[in-house]
């Protein structure tokens, strides 16, 4: 699907592959858009397409500007921002009457391609697309919190990806309440920095934007269809301006309100606007004008003077609606006496709501506080983010606080972040985490303003693939993918082979638009350091078009001894999910990555290491009740942290899930909303009737949190959480309930190496300058896991006979030596290896090595099944058009912040610091030993067992690894 969804889509048969030989064909007027599209395609798909003019060829993507292009159904909105997208077997064509429309067409192509396997296909068909509303956007208060220029620039890019077109930047403000009415020492901010000495001291010392910063914002916005709307807020919220000019403030400069009784005040403010007006390239400038409790006649005059002055500079003035409140006691009503040629943000029904603005025939935008305000981490105004699920399913832009106007009467809608809590410790990334999924939701409902056909859960699943767009440097999608517990994000990754510009770190950076690629014709291994030993149960990768044929999964607790867990054949480009029995590991490695037929390299967009599988995803849910039909119990078992269950208000509150079959479980994880449980029990049952309490929790803290509840392993089919007391009275809600068995099963080997001095479990002992041991090392092996008691451990040196392991053994000689070792128990098998260097007493000397010598590298396994082209089934669909929107419950309380049941705190978890990834050598990690040889080795023991993995190896030899240098006690070189 496309976000926001396409207005019209007519599907055809099959898909079209965009190839490296395809081109982007543009007219001269669209050259800049074409170049940007080319860059974005390279980043998001790996395809590097040339931008050309002239006639198109089969396989090309053409961008066509046709000012005569019309579409009656879309009307004037199509004329301003619409486009057509036609995909056939011959070519892909975007046609639009404006540059903005053409640009939006490229965003849709990017989003569709990122959802296909290989990121290189488009479904055959045609789309016609346009917005339902003119105004679609976001307001950011930078006056009371510093946001970096790079962050602002990223937000412009992200908004354009979702076709949001208005970014209002609230440039000045101050804290709300102070002692004794004196704002002079309060926190305040003004974020524009002029080099004109006249305005020295106006900009805030803790952060501001200079002309170069602002020019950068405007340039980024202009090429992407986004309008920057600067807002300098006067005559209230003006403490920073009054600090610069105390003489124009009320109460001798102690107030945060301007003194409008002085004619000079208005002239000073006009001059200040004039100083920055040349910076502003957009059509509109907002002058605030909200919440001023002073003289109403003076306020009205100031309002009119500022509107006229801004208009005289060639800009459209904008302001926050205050007419209902400011007309009280004046003998006038509403907008009477005010300049009406001003675009109004309707923010509160008491100050000036939708109905009043529509009745006055104003140009206005729905920015309702009770619906669309976020005050980060406050206990009012959605302190933990908007109710995105309700906005997506029930809200429309012409609705606010129980008031509904005709869609034709309103310009659109914007949501806002207000940083009221100036003393709270949070940063721009924390804010982003609260609102990142609100952008696509508001985009969806302002572009295609109808009840969506796709569920909210499916919408979020699509967003996991669509992402936030290209060219982002400071922000990332922090919302966990549905059902996933990825342990690798943000952890160090390494590769034995890397193409310049595409390092392994791109696999775990959380950015789905960066990728790793191997060097030409090089086998590769990838490794991830999880930072500490963790329970792992799978791999989740997204392979690029140059996917490998297959790989082996190896794990290690210490980076020295490695367990071969399984081998895997890759079906082709796209998502690749692999699960295996739970094992404990700190390091996870994919070995034997070789290019598939037709490719010289291997590439991947991401590599995840999955935690223990959540067996409750899709469980059949029952509950004591729901707060509303849109918040049912099954949403606590859908694997999606963006949806939630909200309980009934009264009586016993409980929720249960049927796992579908009996299984062993020992852990339940509950992600509570702010309306969390204080006292509760966890019970299990085999039949859903007879329950046993396995865990009890009491006195749990308030606010949003995640509880991990462990208990003795039990066999159960049903899980129930029953709440005895809630932290927010009648309110109780949970995002997700997860059920796992975290017991480690299977079979593994751990080992130690003993030399002189002793080496225990890792290669951190003393060696000579060549990085080799001075005496014969001793290898100690031990079986681990549930099957260890019955395990048989064997080893062989070189290609010798498999020998039963009974005691530690020494390895002699200085020539390269292979040592394989394995353990078997019933039908389970394990193989592993360790790398070290050896120099026994009296061994022949060797030249001092400068680089590791690579000789006779192991042969990679041959994979004969070449991947076939996947079928793309996720085609954009036309949303269902319903009749009338459902009105939300009116909760308007005009002069006070709306207090919601939203959570007020984020979960803070202690994550271990990730240490350095162990060095990965250029040697392929797939051993030369074949499955057949392993089977023969097993047969020699007389045991009739099946080997499930390839044998690992122990590399022993002079100069194979460079170790920690030391001054040798046995006559080695000085280092």
TrEMBL record:
One of its GO terms (biological process) is carbohydrate metabolic process. Residues 851-889, 907-925 have a biased composition (Low complexity). InterPro entries: Beta_hexosaminidase_sua/sub, FA58C, Galactose-bd-like_sf, GH, GH20_Enzymes, Glyco_hydro_20_cat, Hex-like_dom2, HEX_bac_N. The chain crosses the membrane at residues 945-964. GO terms for molecular function: beta-N-acetylhexosaminidase activity. Residues 493-512, 841-925 are annotated as: Disordered. CDD domains: GH20_DspB_LnbB-like. Residues 495-511 have a biased composition (Polar residues). The active site is at 291 (proton donor). This is F5/8 type C domain-containing protein. It comes from Arthrobacter alpinus.
């Amino acid at each position: 699907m496309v976000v926001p969804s396409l207005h019209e889509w007519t599907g055809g048969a099959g898909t079209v592959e965009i190839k490296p030989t395809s081109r982007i064909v543009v007219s001269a007027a669209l050259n800049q858009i074409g170049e940007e599209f080319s860059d974005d395609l390279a980043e998001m798909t790996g395809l590097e397409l040339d931008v050309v003019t002239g006639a198109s060829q089969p396989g090309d993507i053409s961008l066509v500007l046709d000012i005569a292009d019309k579409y009656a159904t879309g009307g004037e909105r199509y004329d301003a921002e619409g486009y057509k997208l036609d995909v056939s077997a011959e070519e892909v064509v975007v046609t639009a009457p404006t540059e903005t429309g053409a640009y939006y067409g490229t965003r849709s192509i990017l989003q569709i391609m990122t959802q296909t396997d290989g990121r290189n296909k488009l479904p055959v068909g045609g789309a016609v697309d346009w917005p339902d509303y003119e105004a679609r956007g976001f307001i950011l208060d930078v006056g009371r919190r510093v946001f970096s220029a790079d962050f602002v620039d990223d937000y412009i890019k992200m908004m354009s990806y979702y076709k949001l077109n208005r970014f209002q930047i609230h440039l000045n403000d101050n804290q709300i309440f102070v002692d004794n009415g004196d704002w002079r020492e309060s926190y305040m901010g003004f974020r524009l920095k002029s080099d004109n000495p006249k305005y020295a001291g106006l900009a805030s010392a803790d952060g501001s934007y200079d002309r170069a910063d602002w020019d950068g914002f405007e340039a980024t916005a202009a090429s992407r269809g986004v309008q920057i709307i600067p807002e300098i807020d006067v005559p209230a919220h003006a403490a920073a301006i009054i600090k610069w000019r105390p003489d124009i403030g009320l109460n001798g400069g102690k107030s945060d309100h301007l003194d409008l009784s002085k004619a000079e005040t208005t002239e000073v403010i006009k001059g200040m606007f004039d100083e920055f007006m040349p910076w502003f390239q957009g059509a509109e400038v907002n002058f605030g004008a909200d919440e001023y409790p002073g003289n109403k006649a003076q306020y009205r005059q100031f309002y009119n003077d500022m509107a006229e002055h801004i208009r005289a500079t060639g800009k459209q003035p904008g302001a926050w609606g205050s007419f209902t409140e400011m007309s009280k006691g004046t003998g006038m009503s509403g907008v009477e006496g005010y300049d009406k040629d001003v675009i109004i943000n309707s923010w509160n029904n008491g100050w000036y709501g939708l109905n009043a603005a529509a009745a006055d025939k104003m140009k206005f935008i729905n920015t309702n506080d009770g619906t669309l305000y976020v005050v980060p981490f406050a206990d009012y105004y959605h302190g933990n983010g908007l109710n995105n699920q309700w906005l997506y399913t029930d809200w429309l832009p012409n609705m606010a606080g129980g008031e509904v106007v005709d869609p034709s009467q309103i310009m659109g809608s914007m949501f806002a972040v207000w940083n009221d809590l100036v003393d709270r410790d949070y940063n721009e990334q924390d804010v982003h985490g609260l609102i990142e999924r609100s952008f696509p939701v508001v985009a969806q409902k302002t572009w295609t303003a109808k009840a969506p056909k796709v569920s909210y859960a499916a919408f979020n699943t699509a967003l996991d693939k669509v992402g936030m767009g290209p060219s982002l440097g400071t922000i990332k999608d922090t919302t966990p993918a549905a059902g996933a517990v990825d342990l690798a994000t943000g952890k160090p990754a390494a590769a034995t082979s890397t193409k310049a510009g595409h390092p392994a770190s791109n696999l775990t950076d959380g950015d789905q638009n960066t990728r790793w690629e191997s060097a030409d014709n090089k086998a590769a291994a990838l490794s991830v350091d999880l930072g500490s030993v963790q329970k792992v149960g799978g791999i989740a990768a997204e392979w690029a078009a140059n996917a490998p044929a297959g790989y082996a999964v190896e794990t290690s607790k210490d980076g020295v001894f490695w367990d071969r867990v399984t081998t895997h054949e890759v079906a082709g480009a796209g998502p690749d999910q692999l699960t295996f029995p739970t094992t404990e590991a700190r390091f996870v490695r994919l070995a034997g990555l070789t290019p598939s037929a037709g490719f010289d390299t291997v590439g991947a967009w991401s590599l995840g290491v999955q935690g223990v599988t959540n067996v409750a995803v899709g469980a059949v849910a029952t509950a004591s009740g729901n707060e509303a039909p849109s918040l049912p119990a099954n949403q606590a078992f859908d694997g999606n942290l963006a949806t939630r269950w909200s309980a009934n208000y009264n009586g016993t509150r409980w929720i249960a899930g049927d796992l579908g079959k009996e299984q062993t479980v020992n852990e339940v994880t509950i992600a509570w909303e702010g309306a969390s449980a204080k006292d509760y029990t966890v019970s299990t049952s085999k039949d859903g009737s007879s329950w046993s309490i396995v865990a009890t929790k009491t006195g749990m803290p308030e606010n949003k949190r995640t509880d991990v509840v462990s208990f003795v392993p039990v066999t159960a089919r049903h899980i129930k959480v029953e709440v005895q007391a809630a932290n927010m009275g009648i309110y109780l809600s949970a995002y997700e309930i997860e059920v796992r068995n975290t017991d480690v099963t299977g079979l593994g080997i751990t080992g130690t190496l003993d030399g002189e001095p002793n080496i225990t479990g890792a290669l951190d002992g003393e060696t000579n300058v060549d990085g080799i041991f001075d005496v014969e090392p001793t290898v100690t092996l031990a079986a681990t896991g549930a099957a260890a008691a019955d395990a048989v451990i064997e080893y062989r040196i070189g290609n010798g006979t498999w020998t039963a392991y009974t005691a530690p053994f020494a390895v002699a000689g200085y020539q390269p030596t292979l040592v394989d070792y394995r353990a078997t128990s019933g039908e389970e098998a394990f193989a592993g290896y360790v790398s070290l260097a050896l120099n026994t007493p009296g061994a022949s000397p060797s030249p001092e090595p400068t680089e590791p010598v690579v000789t006779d590298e192991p042969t990679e396994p041959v994979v004969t099944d070449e991947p076939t082209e996947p079928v793309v089934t996720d085609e954009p669909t036309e949303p269902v058009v319903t009749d009338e929107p459902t009105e939300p419950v009116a909760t308007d309380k005009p002069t006070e912040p709306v207090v919601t049941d939203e959570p007020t705190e984020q979960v803070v978890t202690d994550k271990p610091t990730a240490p350095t990834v162990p060095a990965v050598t250029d040697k392929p990690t797939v051993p030369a030993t074949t499955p057949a040889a392993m089977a023969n080795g097993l047969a020699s023991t007389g045991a009739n067992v099946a080997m499930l993995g390839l044998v690992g190896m122990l590399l022993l030899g002079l100069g194979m690894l460079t170790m920690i240098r030391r001054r040798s006690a046995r006559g080695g070189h000085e280092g």
